[in-house]
From TrEMBL:
Name recorded for this polypeptide: TasA family protein
InterPro entries: Peptidase_M73_camelysin (IPR022121)
Superkingdom of the organism of origin: Bacteria
Length: 206
């Protein structure tokens, strides 16, 4: 009986040892794997959208030149160059005009100041005595903004060469006080601010 018990005990110990060895081998297997690594690098840079006006006070930007003593039927012409100096084409550009000093000249959309914007394929020829400038085009003219009340928000500008990067537009802004302006327009003044906004081209594959 004693021999039989000893023999069984030996078998159990041997089985436990084998199970332990198998577990050890299985554990070693979880840490082994084949690997391979490769890589590539790409540089991505963004474009720029930049528009600007000509130097203030020069023939490239007369928008800051004031006009005074106007009466119904008078016109005010000012030239300005709008340039696309960014690296990207534009989907378009808009003009927003606001009155920092306001009067019926800008609040009366019918009898107040009316605005027209035209472009010339070459720089406008400036004439007249400051501030009463006049401009003629020796090239081709195009309508950029049809007649509109002097105050407007996000007015779409058409036929712009500056929609293409590196190009510029020779613009002439004309303000007219209609002949329908009555005596209530006497002795008043407005200050009109012109703000141009260029919008990037549509997204595309690069």
């Amino acid at each position: 009986m004693g021999l039989s018990l000893n023999s069984t005990s030996g078998k159990l110990l041997a089985s436990a040892a084998l199970v332990g060895a198998a577990a050890s081998v299985a554990g070693l297997g979880t840490y082994g794997a084949f690997t391979s690594t490769t890589s590539a690098a790409a540089t991505v840079s963004s474009g720029t959208v930049v528009i600007g006006l000509g130097t203030t006070g020069t023939a490239n930007n007369r928008l800051t030149v004031a006009a005074s003593g106007i009466v119904p039927g008078d016109t005010i012409q000012r030239a300005v160059t709008l340039s696309n100096t960014g690296s990207q084409n534009l989907a378009g550009a808009t003009l927003t005009t606001t009155a920092t000093t306001s009067s019926k000249l800008d609040t009366d959309a019918t009898n107040g100041l009316q605005m027209v914007v035209d472009s010339c394929s070459v720089p406008w020829t400036e004439a007249g005595t400051a501030p009463a400038y006049t401009y003629t085009c020796s090239g081709t003219t195009a309508s950029v903004l049809a007649t509109h009340a002097v105050i407007g928000s996000n007015l779409n500008l058409s036929n712009l060469a500056s929609a293409t990067a590196g190009h510029a537009d020779n613009l002439r802004v004309t303000l007219t006080l209609p002949s329908t302006a009555d005596n209530t327009f006497q002795g008043i003044s407005s200050t009109v601010n012109f703000s141009f906004t260029g919008t990037q081209r549509s997204g595309t594959n690069q």
